[in-house]
Specification:
Blueprint lengths: L3 H20 L17 H9 L5 H12 L15 H8 L38 E2 L6 E4 L5 E6 L6 E8 L5 E7 L5 E6 L12 E9 L10 E8 L4 H9 L2 H10 L3 H14 L4 H13 L13
Parallel strand pairs: 2-8
Antiparallel strand pairs: 1-3, 3-6, 4-5, 4-7, 7-8
Helix pairs in contact: 6-7, 7-8
């Protein structure tokens, strides 16, 4: 039985215990609802092993978990709009500097009429390869792209071949062509053997006028040599934009890759006047004025 003398010590112990429980957050304080404090014996055991955070530490931890660190309050970079990027990046001019090899050659086959016999007599210009008047050009690509102008024609297909001097390398294929006039491109496919560095190859394209290939069908031809770049040049190219690569290829006299780079830009941005001007100027610079304004077909 608890006497009056024992009551005071028990009351003091109860008050001390209440204060301690209030500090660690077990007993609701400041009008908090009891339902906000759900705990169990398991919670108390875990709390004994985990240091309790003060209000400031809890707030700091919460803020750090949700906010990104930005000590100087720097405004994030906002990229330029697409129109601004195109105007700034594609405002360029390409100059082709010929490497000074070879002599001018007649690039349309001697046996060729330049057009199919069933096509209109007024069809001009004739089938024309997009190569310098030396009939020769460099590439650094394993599988380069070739360009040929085709006039309006009734032919439905074209024959392409590529071989080296000894015919150790030989590739040929037939592919469909459009009837409307324009410049077509043919990229050497993955199933074709890669060009070897330092080797010169002869390529030709024949328009198949009838059901089968015939000796008199319009034919054009050219030569291509794959050259090697050093590690420094390769590193530079990898860091360049497409327009910068076109400029670099032109200054280095690498014809096929110069033309390919500009053609890709022209197809991606057909309304860009700078690209169109560079494309036409490159063709005029190697004697291809007659087809410089012809459309580049997809």
């Amino acid at each position: 039985m608890v006497t009056k003398n024992d009551y005071l010590p028990l009351k003091l112990v109860s008050v001390a215990l209440f204060i301690e429980l209030s500090i660690i957050g077990v007993v609701p304080i400041h009008g908090q609802e009891i339902s906000d404090h759900k705990w169990s014996s398991e919670t108390l055991l875990n709390d004994q092993d985990t240091p309790q955070l003060g209000h400031f530490d809890q707030a700091l931890q919460k803020r750090e978990s949700k906010e990104e660190f930005n000590p100087m309050n720097i405004t994030q970079y906002q990229p330029a709009s697409p129109s601004q990027s195109i105007n700034s990046i594609l405002s360029f001019s390409v100059t082709f500097i010929p490497p000074g090899v070879g002599k001018p050659k007649y690039t349309v086959g001697a046996a060729s009429r330049g057009k199919c016999p069933q096509d209109a007599e007024a069809v001009t210009p004739y089938v024309t390869p997009l190569i310098p008047n030396t009939n020769y050009g460099f590439t650094v690509a394993e599988r380069p792209t070739f360009f040929v102008y085709l006039p309006e024609t009734s032919a439905k297909r074209a024959f392409f071949s590529l071989r080296d001097a000894n015919e150790d390398y030989y590739y040929q294929t037939i592919f469909p062509i459009a009837s409307n006039p324009g410049i077509i491109s043919f990229e050497l496919p993955e199933d074709a053997p890669a060009l070897e560095i330092g080797k010169t190859y002869n390529w030709s394209l024949v328009t198949i006028c009838g059901q089968a290939l015939r000796p008199g069908d319009p034919k054009v031809q050219g030569e291509i040599k794959r050259i090697e770049l050093d590690s420094e040049q390769i590193s530079k190219l990898e860091s360049m934009s497409p327009s910068e690569r076109a400029v670099w290829y032109g200054l280095e006299g690498i014809w096929y890759d110069t033309l390919t780079a500009i053609a890709q830009l022209k197809q991606s941005h057909p309304k860009n006047a700078n690209i169109t001007s560079s494309w036409e100027e490159i063709l005029r610079s190697v004697g291809l004025e007659a087809i410089s304004g012809k459309p580049l077909l997809e």
